[in-house]
Amino acid sequence: MYDLLVVLVANQGRILEKDFLLSEVWPDSFVEEGNITYNIRQLRKALGDDAQTPRFIETIPRRGYRFIANVEKIWEEDSLDNHPSLESGDLEEAAEPTRRRYVLAIAVAVAVVSVLALGAWLAGTRNVKAAPILSTPFLSEKLSTDGMVAHAALSPDGKFIVYVHRDGLKESLWIRQFDTLNNTQIVAPGDYFYGGLCISQDGQLLYFARGSSGNNKLSVYRMPIFGGAPQMIADSTQGWISVSQDGRRLSFVRCLHTDDDYCSLFVTDAADGRNEKRLITRPKPLRIGDNKISPDGKTVAFASGQSRTASNDFHLSEDDMESGTEHDLTAEKFFNISYIAWLPDQSGVLITAEKFPDRYFRIWEVDRSTGNTAQLTSDPEAYSRLNLDAKGTMLLSTTVEPDFRLNLYELSGSHVAPRILTNAQTVSTAPNGRIVFSSDMSGNPEIWSVNPDGSDQRQLTNTEAIEMVPIVSPDNKTIYFESNRSGEIHIWQMALDGSNQTQLTREEGGYPLAVSPDGAWVYYSSGLRRTLRRVAADGGREEVVLERTFGALAVSPDAACAAFFETNNGENKLTVMPLYNAIPVRSFGIAAGTLNVEQLVWTPDGKYLAYITKDEDSQKTSLWLQPLTGEPPHQVADLSGDDIAEVSAISFSPDGHTLAVIKGKWKHNAVLIKGLK
Questions:
Q1: Which of 2, 21, 212, 362 is deepest in the core (most CB within 10 A)?
Q2: Domain 2-126 is in which class?
Q3: Which residues are CB-neighbours of 625 under 8 A, at least 6 positions away?
Q4: What is the pTM of this model?
Q5: Which residues, in sequence order, are CB contacts of 225 under 8 Å at separation 6+?
Q6: Where are the domains of the chain?
Q7: Using CA of residue 117, residue 123, residue 127, residue 128, what is the dihedral sign?
Q8: 8 Å CB contact between 107 and 56
């Protein structure tokens, strides 16, 4: 991080693009762009700098960074003697790897104090005790860079991996041998998606969870590792599976999503799926995630909890498969626990988990005897899948990185390519046409705003919290958004310039949907129960509007009706319901042949419902309008153009002529860490 500061200061006033920073600061290492973002954020903390109103380091959107404080360069005498041709303005030469000695006085005395504080902070970080499992030195190797490796499993002998490769909407299974580096396809691409993978202890059998496109239920299969006909072991499962080392038992999760049985953990015979036994059950809204059978085959470690309130409410527990006794492995709780791996000696487990306010999924170690936890990684990577070899010397993981952009489409029918403005995750359009969106371009999900032509981009929030889903009041004076800066998700409000940020909800938070025309009420979807609620805009009472649970939900501009998707007798429907009596009054059929429906909003004039569809065969993404008068829906725009594009949010301009669309994909890559103790 100090080297990054040196490069920035030595190039004061210049815009340094990310490729340049990577080559200068990490010339002999393979690191991702996220490493720059993380280190910039840490430098700003140490220097007391603010990304919104910077005094030292300025972010240049979509390009890089610039050091903007005044710099005075003072050369030592022997440095001048060794380099007589060096001119005072030659900052490029000063930044060369020869590391000519000089002293940089930054922004007079105030900056010197800041740099001294930075040095003390860096020295303090060096004294942090390293966790044994990732003691240095160790080697990290990228096994993929195309972002298409969704799942991966390491063989117990550490000689090969099996991985899922995604190509468009099709996924296939591959095996990679480490000794030859050969990659061989063992299951051809198909119209399905994979969940968990695991390999038998002898390396001869592969177990995997797989489901068809458009169906979120998976089945568990097993097959010979080098190809053969898959045999179904269990159906209607989720993606998390585990096989005991003796090959006799398989654990999996099945979620009925009822009030009393939201998710349950099961074990069954790994050979044929017989003797299925339910171990534990969690009520709504608690879900069960990854699960791993212990090396001795007696217990199952599992993750359970909820992330709807954006708080640390996920537990790591252990269940005895014979007695049914359950206990927590640690008192530590997390925002989410992704995957679990037992240490070979059964002294503890490794997990990939996110803990608020940290936004990254880190690798953690949990001591089974004491319950103590240790964070093992601190790099700017979000880790997901987790596998150890039988000796505990190799660790396979996958990293996850979002790649979403704010696109503006003109709906005039001219088929003009969209204008791409910036990185973003959610979006809404203010009554004056200004675009308000959430983005993690600063290293954390924050609220930003920008003009439709891309000018005057401003960061409005700057905290360690997750802050997303902004909407603007009809009078164009207030922005409402979701934030978990209080420890759990709630509705917050602020002025259009980002000032006067205050918490609005206290009882039960969620994400905002609409503001009543008179500005008196903010309607929102409950994070915990997925009900429709509202809160008085002056910070007054909070109340439930509709008790039923909703997925995609939209409130009309006049705040009189709600619209949502539902399935009746196997048919997808779009239903409109008045808020005053909760009795559905209209239902509309979804566009013919549609399996995947994404997003749902009302047009500003309240005459149409708009939604996004993804055609499974052509991979075409389309915008449809459903007239409230009952005519069939009609397609108004083709939003295709990105490989495996996912639409995460849409918003119409006030005149309805422009559509803001957040679309992109999640990049998944496999990484192998070797040299562990």
A1: 21
A2: mainly alpha
A3: 603, 608, 609, 610, 633, 634, 636
A4: 0.72
A5: 162, 175, 186, 199, 200, 203, 204, 205, 206
A6: 2-126, 132-401+669-674, 412-550, 551-653
A7: positive
A8: yes
